[in-house]
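Posted in: Structural Biology > Protein-Ligand Complexes

Title: Requesting predicted complex, flavin mononucleotide in pocket

I'd be grateful if someone could produce the C-alpha coordinates for the following input. Sequence and ligand are given below.
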Amino acid sequence: MKSFLISEMKAGSIYHLMISAVVPRPIAWVSTISPEGKGNLAPFSYFNAVSSDPATLVFSCAIKPDGNPKDTLINILKTKQFVVNVANVDLLAQVNQTSAEYPYGVNELEKVGLTPVASTLVKPSRVKEAPVQIECELYDTLKVGEGQPGSSTLVVGKILAIHVDPKILDPKDPKGMSIDEIALNPLTRLGGQKYGTLGKVIESQRPGKP
Ligand SMILES: Cc1cc2nc3c(=O)[nH]c(=O)nc-3n(C[C@H](O)[C@H](O)[C@H](O)COP(=O)(O)O)c2cc1C
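-- Reply #1 --
Done. Output follows.
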Protein backbone atom coordinates (compact mmCIF):
# COMPACT_ATOMS: atom_id res chain seq x y z
CA MET A 1 0.00 0.00 0.00
CA LYS A 2 1.09 3.56 -0.56
CA SER A 3 0.26 5.49 2.59
CA PHE A 4 -0.50 9.20 2.57
CA LEU A 5 0.06 10.92 5.89
CA ILE A 6 -2.45 13.71 6.25
CA SER A 7 -0.14 15.64 8.58
CA GLU A 8 2.38 15.94 5.70
CA MET A 9 -0.16 17.04 3.09
CA LYS A 10 -1.68 20.34 2.01
CA ALA A 11 -5.47 20.81 2.09
CA GLY A 12 -5.67 20.87 -1.73
CA SER A 13 -3.97 17.47 -2.11
CA ILE A 14 -6.07 16.00 0.70
CA TYR A 15 -9.18 17.21 -1.13
CA HIS A 16 -8.16 15.55 -4.41
CA LEU A 17 -7.28 12.28 -2.68
CA MET A 18 -10.48 12.26 -0.65
CA ILE A 19 -12.85 13.00 -3.54
CA SER A 20 -11.37 10.11 -5.50
CA ALA A 21 -11.36 7.73 -2.51
CA VAL A 22 -14.88 8.29 -1.23
CA VAL A 23 -16.80 7.35 -4.37
CA PRO A 24 -19.33 7.41 -5.82
CA ARG A 25 -20.97 10.26 -3.95
CA PRO A 26 -24.61 11.24 -4.26
CA ILE A 27 -25.26 14.88 -5.10
CA ALA A 28 -27.49 17.18 -3.06
CA TRP A 29 -28.64 19.89 -5.42
CA VAL A 30 -29.58 22.43 -2.79
CA SER A 31 -32.05 25.23 -3.39
CA THR A 32 -32.30 28.04 -0.87
CA ILE A 33 -33.74 31.52 -0.68
CA SER A 34 -32.39 34.74 0.80
CA PRO A 35 -34.51 36.72 3.29
CA GLU A 36 -35.08 39.18 0.41
CA GLY A 37 -36.57 36.36 -1.68
CA LYS A 38 -33.67 35.67 -4.08
CA GLY A 39 -33.32 31.99 -4.97
CA ASN A 40 -30.05 30.05 -5.08
CA LEU A 41 -29.08 26.58 -6.32
CA ALA A 42 -25.79 24.68 -5.94
CA PRO A 43 -24.57 21.06 -5.90
CA PHE A 44 -22.94 19.40 -2.86
CA SER A 45 -21.54 15.87 -3.03
CA TYR A 46 -20.35 15.62 0.57
CA PHE A 47 -23.89 14.45 1.21
CA ASN A 48 -25.76 11.60 2.79
CA ALA A 49 -28.73 10.39 4.82
CA VAL A 50 -28.44 10.46 8.61
CA SER A 51 -31.51 9.03 10.36
CA SER A 52 -35.13 8.02 9.76
CA ASP A 53 -36.72 9.25 13.01
CA PRO A 54 -36.29 12.10 12.90
CA ALA A 55 -35.80 11.89 9.15
CA THR A 56 -32.59 13.78 8.52
CA LEU A 57 -29.86 14.25 5.95
CA VAL A 58 -26.52 16.03 5.99
CA PHE A 59 -24.29 17.85 3.56
CA SER A 60 -21.05 19.68 4.00
CA CYS A 61 -20.61 23.26 2.86
CA ALA A 62 -16.94 24.22 2.60
CA ILE A 63 -15.59 27.69 3.26
CA LYS A 64 -14.74 29.66 0.09
CA PRO A 65 -11.05 30.26 -0.74
CA ASP A 66 -11.54 33.91 0.35
CA GLY A 67 -12.65 32.70 3.80
CA ASN A 68 -16.32 33.60 3.31
CA PRO A 69 -19.25 31.18 3.54
CA LYS A 70 -21.01 30.03 0.37
CA ASP A 71 -24.39 31.56 -0.55
CA THR A 72 -26.16 28.29 0.30
CA LEU A 73 -24.94 28.39 3.90
CA ILE A 74 -25.63 32.11 4.28
CA ASN A 75 -29.24 31.54 3.18
CA ILE A 76 -29.78 28.45 5.32
CA LEU A 77 -28.45 30.14 8.46
CA LYS A 78 -30.79 33.08 7.82
CA THR A 79 -33.96 31.29 6.72
CA LYS A 80 -33.50 27.80 8.32
CA GLN A 81 -34.94 26.12 5.23
CA PHE A 82 -33.72 24.39 2.06
CA VAL A 83 -34.65 21.81 -0.57
CA VAL A 84 -32.38 18.94 -1.63
CA ASN A 85 -33.12 18.09 -5.25
CA VAL A 86 -31.79 14.80 -6.64
CA ALA A 87 -30.53 15.11 -10.20
CA ASN A 88 -30.55 12.39 -12.81
CA VAL A 89 -27.86 11.93 -15.45
CA ASP A 90 -29.81 14.05 -17.98
CA LEU A 91 -29.23 17.06 -15.71
CA LEU A 92 -25.42 16.80 -15.64
CA ALA A 93 -24.80 20.03 -17.57
CA GLN A 94 -27.12 22.04 -15.34
CA VAL A 95 -25.73 20.52 -12.12
CA ASN A 96 -22.23 21.36 -13.24
CA GLN A 97 -23.16 24.89 -14.33
CA THR A 98 -24.89 25.71 -11.04
CA SER A 99 -21.57 25.17 -9.24
CA ALA A 100 -20.25 28.36 -10.88
CA GLU A 101 -19.63 31.25 -8.51
CA TYR A 102 -22.38 33.68 -9.36
CA PRO A 103 -22.66 36.85 -7.24
CA TYR A 104 -24.88 36.59 -4.15
CA GLY A 105 -28.51 37.09 -5.17
CA VAL A 106 -28.18 35.59 -8.66
CA ASN A 107 -30.59 32.66 -9.00
CA GLU A 108 -28.63 29.81 -10.64
CA LEU A 109 -31.89 27.95 -11.13
CA GLU A 110 -33.14 30.50 -13.66
CA LYS A 111 -29.63 31.18 -14.99
CA VAL A 112 -29.33 27.60 -16.31
CA GLY A 113 -32.89 27.41 -17.64
CA LEU A 114 -34.44 25.22 -14.96
CA THR A 115 -38.03 25.59 -13.76
CA PRO A 116 -38.72 26.63 -10.17
CA VAL A 117 -41.77 25.05 -8.60
CA ALA A 118 -43.22 26.19 -5.27
CA SER A 119 -42.50 23.92 -2.31
CA THR A 120 -45.34 22.77 -0.09
CA LEU A 121 -43.87 23.45 3.36
CA VAL A 122 -40.81 25.66 2.89
CA LYS A 123 -40.05 28.88 1.04
CA PRO A 124 -37.18 27.79 -1.28
CA SER A 125 -38.38 26.48 -4.66
CA ARG A 126 -37.93 22.93 -5.86
CA VAL A 127 -36.32 22.13 -9.21
CA LYS A 128 -39.16 20.84 -11.41
CA GLU A 129 -36.79 18.84 -13.62
CA ALA A 130 -35.34 16.88 -10.64
CA PRO A 131 -37.12 13.52 -10.15
CA VAL A 132 -36.79 13.69 -6.33
CA GLN A 133 -37.18 16.85 -4.25
CA ILE A 134 -36.72 16.83 -0.48
CA GLU A 135 -38.05 19.73 1.57
CA CYS A 136 -36.02 20.37 4.72
CA GLU A 137 -35.83 22.67 7.68
CA LEU A 138 -32.52 23.24 9.43
CA TYR A 139 -31.97 20.71 12.24
CA ASP A 140 -28.45 21.71 13.26
CA THR A 141 -25.06 22.82 11.98
CA LEU A 142 -21.59 21.74 13.04
CA LYS A 143 -18.54 23.81 12.18
CA VAL A 144 -15.62 21.53 11.29
CA GLY A 145 -12.34 23.43 11.42
CA GLU A 146 -11.67 27.07 12.18
CA GLY A 147 -12.65 28.71 8.89
CA GLN A 148 -9.34 27.97 7.12
CA PRO A 149 -9.37 26.73 3.46
CA GLY A 150 -10.60 23.13 3.53
CA SER A 151 -12.77 23.65 6.60
CA SER A 152 -16.49 23.21 6.39
CA THR A 153 -19.88 23.41 8.03
CA LEU A 154 -22.07 20.34 8.26
CA VAL A 155 -25.71 21.19 7.62
CA VAL A 156 -28.16 18.69 9.05
CA GLY A 157 -31.63 18.99 7.57
CA LYS A 158 -34.83 17.68 9.08
CA ILE A 159 -36.82 16.23 6.19
CA LEU A 160 -40.39 17.49 6.02
CA ALA A 161 -41.53 16.06 2.69
CA ILE A 162 -40.11 13.98 -0.16
CA HIS A 163 -41.63 14.50 -3.61
CA VAL A 164 -41.04 11.72 -6.13
CA ASP A 165 -41.84 11.62 -9.84
CA PRO A 166 -44.38 8.75 -9.99
CA LYS A 167 -42.60 7.45 -13.12
CA ILE A 168 -39.62 6.33 -10.98
CA LEU A 169 -41.57 4.57 -8.21
CA ASP A 170 -40.66 0.89 -7.99
CA PRO A 171 -43.54 -1.17 -9.42
CA LYS A 172 -42.25 -4.21 -7.47
CA ASP A 173 -42.89 -2.50 -4.12
CA PRO A 174 -46.49 -3.39 -3.19
CA LYS A 175 -46.71 -0.27 -1.02
CA GLY A 176 -45.44 1.91 -3.85
CA MET A 177 -43.18 3.71 -1.42
CA SER A 178 -39.72 3.07 -2.79
CA ILE A 179 -37.85 4.26 -5.83
CA ASP A 180 -36.54 2.19 -8.74
CA GLU A 181 -32.92 3.35 -8.75
CA ILE A 182 -32.44 2.41 -12.39
CA ALA A 183 -35.42 4.56 -13.39
CA LEU A 184 -34.08 7.37 -11.19
CA ASN A 185 -30.73 7.16 -13.03
CA PRO A 186 -28.94 9.29 -10.41
CA LEU A 187 -25.94 11.42 -11.24
CA THR A 188 -23.02 10.76 -8.91
CA ARG A 189 -19.75 12.53 -8.28
CA LEU A 190 -16.31 10.95 -8.55
CA GLY A 191 -12.79 12.40 -8.29
CA GLY A 192 -11.37 15.24 -10.38
CA GLN A 193 -13.93 16.53 -12.88
CA LYS A 194 -15.57 13.13 -13.18
CA TYR A 195 -19.18 12.12 -12.69
CA GLY A 196 -20.60 8.62 -12.48
CA THR A 197 -23.74 6.76 -13.42
CA LEU A 198 -25.33 3.93 -11.48
CA GLY A 199 -23.83 0.94 -13.32
CA LYS A 200 -24.87 -2.62 -12.55
CA VAL A 201 -27.29 -3.24 -9.67
CA ILE A 202 -26.59 -6.35 -7.57
CA GLU A 203 -29.09 -7.72 -5.06
CA SER A 204 -27.98 -9.63 -1.96
CA GLN A 205 -30.14 -10.74 0.93
CA ARG A 206 -28.93 -9.43 4.27
CA PRO A 207 -28.30 -12.03 6.98
CA GLY A 208 -31.23 -12.38 9.36
CA LYS A 209 -33.49 -10.12 7.30
CA PRO A 210 -36.48 -11.49 5.39
C1 LIG B 1 -20.80 17.94 -8.42
C2 LIG B 1 -20.30 18.97 -7.46
C3 LIG B 1 -20.24 18.69 -6.12
C4 LIG B 1 -19.85 19.66 -5.20
N1 LIG B 1 -19.80 19.34 -3.88
C5 LIG B 1 -19.49 20.28 -2.97
C6 LIG B 1 -19.50 19.98 -1.58
O1 LIG B 1 -19.79 18.85 -1.16
N2 LIG B 1 -19.20 20.98 -0.72
C7 LIG B 1 -18.92 22.25 -1.13
O2 LIG B 1 -18.69 23.13 -0.31
N3 LIG B 1 -18.89 22.57 -2.44
C8 LIG B 1 -19.18 21.62 -3.36
N4 LIG B 1 -19.18 21.94 -4.70
C9 LIG B 1 -18.90 23.32 -5.10
C10 LIG B 1 -20.14 24.23 -4.95
O3 LIG B 1 -21.21 23.75 -5.74
C11 LIG B 1 -19.78 25.64 -5.39
O4 LIG B 1 -18.84 26.19 -4.49
C12 LIG B 1 -20.94 26.59 -5.54
O5 LIG B 1 -20.52 27.79 -6.18
C13 LIG B 1 -21.57 26.99 -4.22
O6 LIG B 1 -22.64 27.84 -4.53
P1 LIG B 1 -23.25 28.91 -3.56
O7 LIG B 1 -22.17 29.93 -3.22
O8 LIG B 1 -24.36 29.49 -4.39
O9 LIG B 1 -23.73 28.20 -2.35
C14 LIG B 1 -19.50 20.95 -5.65
C15 LIG B 1 -19.53 21.24 -7.02
C16 LIG B 1 -19.91 20.26 -7.92
C17 LIG B 1 -19.94 20.56 -9.38
